[in-house]
Amino acid sequence: MAFYEQDVGVHIDEKKLQARVRELGEQITRDYQGKELTLICVLKGSAFFAMDLARYVDLPLTIEFLGVSSYQGGTETTGEVRITTDVSKPMAGKHLLVIEDIIDTGLTMSFLLENLKARHPASLKVCSLLEKPSRARTQIPIDYKGFVIDDVFVVGYGLDYAERYRNLPFIGVMKGK
Ligand code: XMP
Ligand code: MG
Asked: For the chain, which has fewer Cβ within 10 Å, the N-terminal or C-terminal residue?
């Protein structure tokens, strides 16, 4: 029995996940033809998604990492967002695509978009693997969306529960949460 099986069930399997990530990569490739793209990988949750997605984007691109902290450890948002690691270069004049694992209440992305807008990019778009619309507290335009999910706490493929389960190659759901 694998280490996670007692606590985590499969919600979106690896095959379905990879097929959708590939489609998003192809869509981004078409939309950004002739442009130099900057992917902003929001740490830590979107790391696996962003790295897979980047492999499906057939364009010259730059990858930046932005660390944010909006959670204290459990499954409830605190509403407080902090940048813990900033990008390494000025973002002015760049075509930015923010890569997130999940948009839940939308508070994290709302903060990020305001923060990045103030750096005067050439364009600013959002790509999120998952969306939980039932929990939205602010409307976020998601330009590239992987899957819409119900209000369940998901883990795997970058998403964690108290830092665990990020390494699962699928989106799982915590049993009994
Ligand atoms: P908000 O509420 O600001 O949340 O849109 C965004 C961040 O909250 C985390 N989050 C989750 N993490 N399973 C997780 O492992 C979930 O179901 C979940 N819902 C929200 C996540 O870090 C996301 O970037
Ligand atoms: Mg996150």
From this structure: N
**pTM score, whole prediction:** 0.94
**Which residue is catalytic, options 7, 101, 104, 160?**
104
Cβ-based neighbours of 131, under 8 Å, separated by 6 or more: 102, 103, 142, 145, 147, 148, 149
Residue 9, domain member (yes or no): no
- What is the ipTM score, two decimals? 0.93
Indicate which CATH number applies to the domain containing 123: 3.40.50.2020
CA distance 31 to 139: 23
Please name which of 102, 16, 23, 99 lies closest in space to residue 56, comparing C-alpha atoms. 23
Number of domains in the chain: 1
Span 5-61, pLDDT tens digits: 999 999 999 999 999 999 999 999 999 999 999 999 999 999 999 999 999 999 999
Adjacent-strand bridge partners of 123: 95
Q: Facing residues of 103 across strands?
A: 131
Instruction: Tell me if residue 150 is catalytic.
Output: no
Q: Whose CA is nearest to atom 13 of ligand 1?
A: 154
The CA 92 to ligand 1 mean position distance, Å, reads 28
